[in-house]
Amino acid sequence: MIDHSLIKVLIVDDDDISCRVLSAMLNCHGYKSQCMSNGQDCINAMKSSHFDILLIDCLMPVMDGMETVSLIRSGMAGDHYREMPIIAITADLIMSPKEKCIQSGANTCLYKPIDFKELIATLESELATIGNHSAEIAANDAINIAKTDHRKFVDSIVHNFTDSQPVQSKSIPDHTSCSFGKWLRSHGSSMYSDLPEFIEITDIHERIHLLTHEALESLNHGDRSQADKVLNEIESISHNMVMLLDKLKNRQ
């Protein structure tokens, strides 16, 4: 469920009455809103403030809606606004600005006079898309963090081997208590447990920990050759595991 009080809508229309009516409609439904009278003011406002969705008239003086939308999509208002949901509005039923606005980059277009129910339904539909996209970004960020944690673990093992310093096995976390293992058992499991890549990653991760203890035992017993052999295997299957993690991101 969308918390409307957290959503800020930027309304851009040179018709002051239209702006006031749209703002009142949105405020009655719990949304926050701010009005601008042309595209240039819209771009300037977006550079200095945060907005979640844009409601913009297609035909305006100074800078019309179509030009404004194109500039936003090109990054003129900031890269974080490139994918912003944009709803164009128009009163022109003859010159087909609806198609032109959508070609410029608007997600959809509504005709004036705006139907309140249609407006709210369209807003919620576009905001739901934001939620799905945010969830995808969060999932990918979690994978990237987990991948970084794993690389740090393997790098620390390689560093210990390079220094040839005795390392106690008990100082190495097992496959369930290391940072990557915690991700596997929590977020990773809830998101990907049924995917073959995840199952393979789980097996490889456990194998890496077993090999780490085997390599440390060889190193501490002076068998450097065997330790290096096992280390090479750790690095090889670790590389494979990282590639599998990237495949999980592509599954989003």
Distance separating the two termini: 22 Å
Helical segment count: 8
For the biggest β-sheet, the strand order reads 2-1-3-4-5
Q: What number of structural domains do the residues give?
A: 2
Largest sheet: 5 strands, parallel
Fraction of residues in helix: 55-70%
- CATH C-level class of the largest domain is Mainly Alpha
User: Are there runs of 5+ residues with pLDDT below 50, and where?
Assistant: none
**Helix-strand topology string:** EHEHEHEHEHHHH
Shape: elongated
Q: How would you characterize the overall build of this protein?
A:
This protein is of the alpha/beta class and 252 residues long. Helices cover 61% and strands 10% of the residues. The protein folds into 2 domains: 111 residues, Response regulator (Rossmann fold); 117 residues, Four Helix Bundle (Hemerythrin (Met), subunit A) (Up-down Bundle). The chain contains 8 helices and 5 strands, in the order βαβαβαβαβαααα. The chain is elongated.
